[in-house]
Design goal:
20% strand; Aldehyde Dehydrogenase, Chain A, domain 1; 2 domains
């Protein structure tokens, strides 16, 4: 066992109070008075009680955001920049609390939450804090005399953000930053499994001086609060990260007022290792491509294609490495993998493992829930299947857990065809030392992002999003600002 991180006193105090909704700068109970418990997935025990907002609360939040919008949109860009930088500074000052809330509410290892994810969220906020003074239009050389024609980018109005439980802090910052930088007001509906970092961010936003009603948080369930947000005619845009199934429902719900929608959805991402690659580096990348965050990762490299001449070598290395991973409580610094998010998710993953066995795939590592000292939580062994059929459930569907399926292939044309035979198109990875091959695959693989000789890297400057049933629109980069603004053309007769 490594060092056990002590609970920060401010986190202890935070968990002792009942968590409320932030609407129009005021903390309030749900209109219905309903609440729900958020659980620690490492123990199955309650952490704290949160308000369960519903349609009435969403309507109150939309009205507050509408009232706040004109002044926020009219604020000088450099003033919005200063407020967002102050917000990022407070996130930095309270990064220990944010990381601990993420560990407790999600279960992920401390080293991932504190050393990586909090910094990713802060860096995203700082990146978008710089955008208010960078939003520009163009002038146009038109083929008519006596006109001056130009374009401007203006905010959409009230935006809604629905974030997932796997990277709740990062995904919140990823949506708050560009929405507010563009001059919109925002209602954030975090996943009901992990609402705590969103609530803490809301407290910090108020402390930073972001005006009342500009940033609102309504905790609650997808079928009530989330559905109400997507259907509300006062909402101009929905940004959603989550499952493909829910994404499809959001598209349908958005039709009422044709609101803007951006979707970052599921994946079944292929990672391809050719026999000219650095086998050790590729095997390590494949290990973490699937097992990082216990496989609860939209870009998880869950389909591993290995060229036949090195297939047995890579399979043996991965099986040994998977069995050696330390699964445990997040606040133990030696932990490498935490629990799954819930009993529901654990049951889902175990169901896919049983399906893999029924379909004749070879189970070469893991495959079971972890008991013993970890029996109270939702812990799962890192699991590897081999020799599965390409059209089997474990090969075709997103499992969202620590389950890898391995395949052997013979040549480039074959593996591209097999890798692309998926309804998803979020991410892909290639390990090869053949420069021409690397660029060919980067072009031919159907994925919104392709990593060459690496995997699962992000930067706020680089756009990210999917193809096919992995969604549309982009997060990150300057391109995301197009998702939160409307382009207006202006004609002036001289």
């Amino acid at each position: 066992m490594g060092e056990l991180i002590p609970i920060h006193p401010d986190v202890e105090a935070f968990l002792k109070r009942e968590q409320k909704l932030l609407i129009g700068g005021q903390w309030a109970a749900a209109a219905s008075g309903a609440t729900f418990e958020t659980l620690n997935p490492a123990t199955g025990q309650p952490l704290t009680v949160c308000a369960a907002g519903d349609a009435e609360d969403i309507d109150r939040a939309v009205q507050a955001a509408q009232r706040a919008f004109p002044a926020w949109a009219a604020l000088m860009p450099n003033q919005r920049e200063r407020l967002l930088h102050r917000f990022a500074d407070l996130m930095e000052a309270h990064k220990t609390e944010l990381a601990q809330l993420e560990v407790l509410d999600n279960g992920k290892p401390w080293n991932a939450a504190y050393n990586v994810e909090v910094h990713v969220a802060i860096n995203q906020m700082r990146y978008y804090a710089g955008f208010p003074t960078k939003l520009t239009g163009e002038t146009y050389a038109i083929s008519s005399p006596d006109f001056h024609v130009y374009s401007v980018r203006q905010p959409l109005g009230v935006c809604g953000a629905i974030t997932p439980w796997n990277y709740s802090l990062v995904m919140a910052a990823q949506k708050i930053g560009p929405a507010l930088a563009a001059g919109n007001t925002l209602i954030l509906k975090p996943a009901e499994q992990t609402p705590l970092t969103a609530i803490r961010l809301a407290e910090l936003a108020l402390e930073a001086g972001i005006p009342e009603g500009v940033f609102n948080v309504v905790t609650g369930f997808g079928e009530t609060a989330g559905a109400a947000l997507t259907q509300h005619h006062g909402v101009a845009k929905i940004a959603f990260t989550g499952s493909t199934e829910v994404g499809k429902r959001i598209v349908g719900a958005s039709a009422g007022n044709l609101k803007h929608v951006s979707l970052e959805l599921g994946g079944k991402s292929p990672l391809i290792i050719f026999d000219d690659a650095d086998i050790h580096a590729a095997s390590q990348a494949a290990l973490w491509a699937i097992f990082a965050n216990s496989g609860q990762n939209c870009v998880a490299g869950s389909r591993l294609y290995v060229q036949r001449s090195i297939y047995d070598t890579v399979q043996s290395a991965l099986a040994a490495a998977a069995c050696a991973l330390k699964v445990g409580y997040g606040l133990d610094t030696s932990t490498q993998l935490g629990p799954l998010i819930s009993q529901t998710q654990l049951d889902r993953v175990l169901g896919y493992i049983e399906a893999g066995k029924r379909d004749g795939a070879a189970l070469i590592a893991g495959g079971s829930r972890i008991g013993g000292d970890l029996a109270g939580g939702y812990f799962m062994q890192p699991t590897i299947f081999a020799d599965a059929a390409d059209d089997s459930l474990i090969a075709a569907e997103e499992i969202f857990g620590p389950v890898l399926t391995m395949f052997a292939f013979d040549n480039e044309e074959e593996v591209v065809q097999r890798a692309n035979a998926s309804r998803f198109g979020l991410a892909a990875g290639v390990y090869t030392n053949n420069l021409s091959r690397a660029h060919r695959l980067a072009r031919t693989l159907n994925a919104g992002v392709v990593w060459i000789n690496t995997y699962d890297w992000f930067d706020p400057a680089v756009p990210f999003g999917g193809m096919g049933e992995s969604g549309y629109g982009r997060e990150l980069g300057r391109q995301v600002m197009e998702m939160y603004t409307e382009l207006k053309s202006v004609w002036v007769k001289l």
